């Protein structure tokens, strides 16, 4: 179990002005969970991860792993990275080119305080190499591995030391798309089976949604939302998260009135029904986030319901196989929609739109 | 290309003529360069080889083919000892310098040792303290007779026999190794910097200690570069002249360089034997340079630089950082403070005496006045200035054309040019001096005994440096910059003068300054080429030493070091203003 409190890390290069790369980071990860730091390039994910690893010295905060404090600015505690027993996989994999596959994986056991016999080392290493299916290339020079194999070797090297915490920095970003999908599943399976507490850094939202128990979305050095993948996707806390996680339509408007737990919002495309939200009162300016797949399209007018209904004109459409993407003009505002391939309306024709109040996320504008 | 003008007539654009002319001009310049470089690099070498097979000619007996020189040079037990001495000295120097330099590089790049900003400042010190002054100062510090260290131990601890003897193989290795350590430092630092930091970080995350990371990862990964650095230092060591001449010769400890000097300066001088020694020396340096260049070309195998430009983190080494800082400060004391102070002390005396309260009362600036009033002093300084500036200018201009040919054109055989211009890397200074001396003695075109032959020696010796500075910046000039100039109708000569040279300027300036500094300290070639009236600064120091004028030598040395230091400071400030990076 890991907990991070008020963590801030500043880079101070001599002669340059300091960069506050991570500021006031708070989160905790229960044992056995996979926690993801997600955000655009340069938002401070790596910095946060490296601070946890001990590779950067934070400027303030507390980091606890399994109830031992590994960093505390107040207590002036800083446990060196080599004493933290955290496994880490680097974005570049950092496979040592002067060693064989076996030597790479055996290194953490050879340097650790507790002396192991070479037979014990061999057994342990072969076991992890088998787990990542590299046991057949153990004698190969590490430089002569494919990208995917290097990635698995890096993982094996992090696992062999039986880490208290596994830190992964964009471990899949150097792989091609096919392999990335495959490794994503393997990684997930392995993490769940071994029950390893894991921190995963990525800028790829689909990767984060697919793998994580919990996600922290970061922007400009701060965590802007923490939640389960479903939470983050369906109830983004602000426009940044809504925009960053998948594509979305933002519709600006003003809250006109409401009844029960419903609000009516006046927007440029017309009146929309949305779920009431604490803190949003009548007269407030809001921004509605509607995912393209929540913009329901039909060739004929749907039956009346609590859904908001509109009519628009198809501007463009792209057939993608299992679905099709539409661009639709509604009162001179463009909406993106993702629809079932059965929708037949042609470009330039009128199309019917229904939007479920449940699927409209109200964000303070 | 023909273009039809609005009035209907067809004109040939100037582009055609431009190309036509530039084509001719280009070949003239290229041809000239090739012949100059070939003449500079090859002829003396060829003649040296020939001389080594010739018997000594006298007025009565013309030279004939003989293997006698080689028999003397390699066939006797004496000569075997010479070879062993040379190899031991070079090996020891290289190893000592490399250990020191690698240690400092690691401390500077990877640990949180205090005073780190001083490390790079330190690395220019051997540039401004010429080898001969450094050696002399160490004689004053650790010779059995006058060495201050020995006197201190005698006075304080009552030791009967001197503790240190600088006139020994160990002494030679100590002095030269200290002096060369910064070269190792710079070379290894470059290797450490080109390393992917995550390779070391992942070892740290695996639980390895800072020392384990250093030995199992950092050094192993830098190994090809370290080996290459060793070979460079080894070649430097085997070429080294000042230290063996001043520390070895007095006690009969000879290496190839000092043996060559001896053979030339004995009476009658034995040019054939000197040439045979020179051949042995050339063979060793060629092998060294050959393996070094092979290593360097495959050395990048391990350097997997990632896109992230951030330096690797430095490790907190706790209290050890005081120890590492201490070693560094000790090194600074040995390599800068003590040598400079001992020269300063000596320069302020009337007769040389070790520092003491009594001697303190005899301080005077008389020696400085004496040096300044020395007959020919200004001539000597002027000679050095002319040679340094002239040599640097010729080298940088010549190599800029050579680099342009080897890098920017596809002319077949351009590698020959590259090779020829880099060939002088294998010439030890004394061998170069020897070969020029015998060539221009035999083919008298009126330059032997003038400054011109020394200028030629400097140009040859520093060609490879010019190549290095110019090729680095030439590679960065995009082909299209020239092409766009050509498209606007400029001739080759204009393009070169107006586009290429200005773009090369930072590299040109840096190389120019570097060559000026190393020219001023040049001794090992000059020693065989100067003649009375044509002395240069380093020769004057040498003569002071030979005449036992230690006080004058020290005063001159202090002035020279101060001047070189001042020159570099001015250049540094200027170059920061004009965007010239590291000198
Ligand atoms: N060693 C450093 N020195 C100075 N600034 C740094 C350093 N490392 C990172 N930064 C800066 O800190 C900020 C956060 O960097 P970080 O590497 O944590 O981003 P990231 O979220 O991992 O991005 P990416 O997805 O591109 O890896 C960036 O603005 C970066 O330029
Ligand atoms: Mg990153």
TrEMBL record, chain A:
One family name in Pfam for this protein: TOBE_2
Gene Ontology terms: cellular component: ATP-binding cassette (ABC) transporter complex, substrate-binding subunit-containing
Record-linked Gene3D superfamilies: 2.40.50.100, Nucleic acid-binding proteins, P-loop containing nucleotide triphosphate hydrolases
Organism: Phyllobacterium bourgognense
Residue ranges constituting the ABC transporter domain according to the UniProt record: 2-245
Membrane topology: Peripheral membrane protein
InterPro entries registered for this protein in UniProt: AAA+_ATPase, ABC_transporter-like_ATP-bd, ABC_transporter-like_CS, ABC_transpr_MalK/UgpC-like, Mo/tungstate-bd_C_term_dom, NA-bd_OB-fold, P-loop_NTPase, Transp-assoc_OB_typ2
Protein name as catalogued: Iron(III) transport system ATP-binding protein
TrEMBL record, chain B:
BP GO terms, sorted: transmembrane transport
Membrane topology type: Multi-pass membrane protein
Transmembrane segments: 27-50, 89-107, 119-141, 166-192, 213-235, 271-291, 322-346, 387-407, 419-439, 445-464, 507-530, 550-571
Coiled-coil annotated residue ranges, if any: none
Annotated ranges, domain ABC transmembrane type-1: 83-292, 381-571
Keyword tags: Cell inner membrane, Cell membrane, Membrane, Transmembrane, Transmembrane helix, Transport
Signal peptide residues on this chain, from the entry's feature table: none
Protein name: Iron(III) transport system permease protein
Lineage: Bacteria, Pseudomonadati, Pseudomonadota, Alphaproteobacteria, Hyphomicrobiales
């Amino acid at each position: 179990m890991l907990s991070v409190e008020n963590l801030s890390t500043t880079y101070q290069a001599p002669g340059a002005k300091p960069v506050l790369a991570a500021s006031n980071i708070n989160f905790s990860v229960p044992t056995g969970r996979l926690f993801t730091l997600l955000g655009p390039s340069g938002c401070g994910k790596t910095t946060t991860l490296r601070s946890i690893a001990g590779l950067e010295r934070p400027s303030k905060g507390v980091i606890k792993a399994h109830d031992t404090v590994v960093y505390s600015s107040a207590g002036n505690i800083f446990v060196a990275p080599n004493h933290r027993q955290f496994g880490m996989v680097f974005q570049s994999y950092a496979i040592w080119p002067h060693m064989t596959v076996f030597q790479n994986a055996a290194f953490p056991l050879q340097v650790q305080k507790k002396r192991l016999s070479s037979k014990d080392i061999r057994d342990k290493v072969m076991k992890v190499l088998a787990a990542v299916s590299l046991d057949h290339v153990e004698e190969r020079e590490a430089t002569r591995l494919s990208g995917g194999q290097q990635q698995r070797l890096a993982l094996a090297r992090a696992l062999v030391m039986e880490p208290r915490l596994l830190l992964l920095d964009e471990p899949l970003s150097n792989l091609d798309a096919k392999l990335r999908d495959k490794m994503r599943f393997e990684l997930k399976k392995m993490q769940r089976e071994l029950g390893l507490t894991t921190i995963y850094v990525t800028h790829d939202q689909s990767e984060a949604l697919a793998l994580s128990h919990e996600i922290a979305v970061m922007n400009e050095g701060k965590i802007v939302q923490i939640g389960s993948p479903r939470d983050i996707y369906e109830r983004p806390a602000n426009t940044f998260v809504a925009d960053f996680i998948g594509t979305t339509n933002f519709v600006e408007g003003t809250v006109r009135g409401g009844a029960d737990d419903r609000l009516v919002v006046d927007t440029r495309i017309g009146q929309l029904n949305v779920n009431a939200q604490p803190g949003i009162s009548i007269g407030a300016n809001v921004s509605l986030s509607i995912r393209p797949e929540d913009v329901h399209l039909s060739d004929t007018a749907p039956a009346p319901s609590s859904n908001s209904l509109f009519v628009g004109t198809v501007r463009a459409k792209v057939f993608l196989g299992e679905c099709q993407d539409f661009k639709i003009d509604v009162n001179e505002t463009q909406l993106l929609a993702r629809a079932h391939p059965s929708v037949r309306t042609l470009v330039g024709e009128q199309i019917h739109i229904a939007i479920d109040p449940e699927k409209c996320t109200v964000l303070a504008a | 290309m023909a273009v039809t003008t609005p009035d209907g007539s067809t004109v040939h654009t100037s582009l055609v003529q431009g190309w036509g002319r530039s084509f001719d001009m280009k070949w003239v310049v290229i041809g000239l360069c090739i012949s100059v470089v070939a003449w500079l690099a090859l002829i003396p070498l060829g003649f040296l080889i020939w001389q080594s097979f010739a018997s000594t000619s006298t007025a009565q007996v013309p030279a004939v083919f003989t293997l006698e020189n080689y028999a003397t040079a390699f066939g006797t037990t004496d000569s075997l000892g010479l070879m062993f001495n040379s190899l031991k000295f070079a090996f020891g120097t290289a190893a000592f310098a490399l250990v020191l330099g690698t240690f400092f590089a690691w401390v500077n790049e990877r640990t949180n040792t205090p005073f780190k900003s001083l490390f790079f400042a330190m690395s220019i010190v051997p540039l401004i303290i010429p080898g001969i002054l450094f050696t002399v100062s160490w004689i004053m510090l650790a010779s059995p007779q006058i060495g201050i260290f020995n006197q201190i131990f005698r006075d304080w601890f009552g030791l009967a026999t001197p503790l240190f003897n600088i006139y020994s193989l160990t002494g030679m290795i100590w002095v030269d190794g200290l002096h060369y350590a910064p070269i190792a430092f710079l070379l290894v630092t470059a290797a450490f910097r080109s390393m992917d930091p995550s390779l070391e970080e992942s070892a740290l995350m695996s639980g390895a200690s800072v020392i384990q990371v250093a030995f199992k990862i950092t050094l192993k990964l830098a190994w090809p570069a370290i080996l290459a650095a060793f070979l460079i230092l080894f070649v430097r060591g085997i070429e080294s002249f000042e230290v063996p001449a001043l520390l070895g010769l007095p006690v009969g400890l000879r290496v190839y360089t000092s043996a060559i000097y001896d053979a030339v300066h004995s009476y009658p001088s034995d040019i054939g034997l000197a040439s045979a020694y020179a051949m042995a020396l050339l063979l060793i340096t060629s092998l060294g340079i050959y393996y070094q260049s092979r290593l360097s070309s495959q050395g990048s195998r391990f350097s997997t630089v990632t896109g992230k430009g951030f330096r690797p983190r430095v490790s907190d080494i706790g209290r050890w950082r005081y120890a590492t800082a201490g070693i560094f400060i000790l090194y600074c004391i040995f390599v800068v403070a003590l040598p400079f102070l001992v020269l300063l002390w000596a320069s302020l005396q009337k007769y040389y005496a070790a520092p003491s309260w009594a001697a303190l009362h005899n301080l005077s600036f008389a020696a400085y006045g004496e040096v300044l009033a020395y007959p020919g002093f200004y001539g000597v300084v002027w000679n050095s200035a002319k040679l340094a500036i002239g040599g640097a200018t010729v080298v940088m201009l010549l190599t800029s054309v050579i680099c342009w040919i080897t890098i920017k054109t596809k002319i077949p055989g351009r590698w020959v040019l590259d090779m020829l211009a880099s060939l002088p890397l294998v010439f030890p200074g004394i061998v170069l001096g020897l070969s020029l001396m015998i060539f221009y003695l035999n083919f008298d075109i009126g330059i032997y005994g003038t400054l011109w032959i020394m200028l030629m020696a400097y140009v040859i010796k520093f060609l490879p440096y010019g190549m290095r500075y110019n090729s680095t910046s030439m590679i960065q000039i995009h082909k299209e910059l020239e092409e766009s100039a050509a498209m606007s109708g400029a001739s080759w000569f204009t393009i070169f003068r107006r586009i290429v040279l200005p773009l090369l300027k930072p590299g040109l300036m840096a190389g120019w300054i570097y060559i000026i500094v190393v020219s001023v300290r040049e001794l090992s070639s000059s020693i065989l080429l100067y003649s009375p009236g044509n002395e240069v600064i380093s020769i004057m120091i040498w003569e002071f030493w030979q005449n036992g004028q230690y006080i004058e030598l020290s005063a001159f040395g202090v002035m020279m070091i101060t001047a070189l230091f001042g020159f570099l400071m001015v250049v540094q400030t200027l170059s920061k203003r004009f965007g010239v990076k590291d000198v």
